[in-house]
Amino acid sequence: MAGAASTTVDQITSANQADTHTQGHYTTTGLDNRKIAIWAFIGSECMLFTSLISTYLIYKGRSLVGPYPHEPWTDPATKKVFPAILDIPVTSASTFVLLMSSLAMVLAHNAVVNADKPRTSIWQSSKLWLGLTAFLGAVFLCFQAYEFTSFVHEGLTIRTNLFGSSFFTLTGFHGAHVTAGVLWLLALLAIDFKRGLRPSDALAVDLSALYWHFVDVVWIVIFTLVYLIQ
Amino acid sequence: MANQMQAAKEAAVEAGAGPVAAQQHADAHAGHPTAATYVKIGIFLTVITIAEVWAYYIPELVAAKGVFITLLLVMSAVKFVTVVALYMHLKYDHRIFRAFFIGPFIVAAGTMMGLMFLFGKLAIRLGILN
Q: Model ipTM?
């Protein structure tokens, strides 16, 4: 009896190992370890960005010299007038782009989950949505590159004042996360073109989607606290 | 023997140590919104973003600082919760994932409040800092 039970346990273990070699490892919770890991990672990232946002808020309004984010500033030495440096219309456009990339990402995931069902239109293609998400992420990065370049031309660098230091650190970190997300999406897109993503790959897409949505959520907070609140 | 193994495997799954990732993941998606709902959520998020930017360009509203800041924070919080609950599926996922996100979020929010009290505007208002 004990021998039979032991054999069964061995067989279950080997069956589980066969599964897990291709599909990740299960924890005692019955949940996939990769999904637990990404949520733990997102939790830690939450604290990282909170510390950066806190630093920005603490230093807000304490710069001794301009340019300032929301008000114009005249340099006492040169009498040169610096306008308020934040460009809300451009940032609003980039925020919209990032929001739409989140929508494209969730539709990409939806397309992979339903990949085994007969496709009736191009709108159910995971390649389309993954490609669009990566493209919109790249467009967001272009907006950020434009913003950083124009700030430097207008006299604001990371060393100019407290606003510059905290602003470039916060948005720079966020931009680095978006860059990592775009690379991750391009890797998934390459796999999709090579062999096609199937419902069994839904978890892999889900992990990248969680990361991407988190990056979007962080920007929602940054957009309000840094750009809109004066 | 095969039946015995299958039954034991099912029991193991019921006990919470289950394999078969794809099937479980597919099952987990059973109650998720459809593509059309995701599009509606996207439109909702866009409308809130437009409202935020619109509010920024109303001088009377900006002048009423407390109202303006509260309004922006509420709209931002609605967007935040919508994305986390519906796009990140936290509403439908296992409660452990919720704990993994909400736990650090509470710690982070507490840290932010603490830092604002120590070094920020709150400290200035309370006369702790100049």
A: 0.83
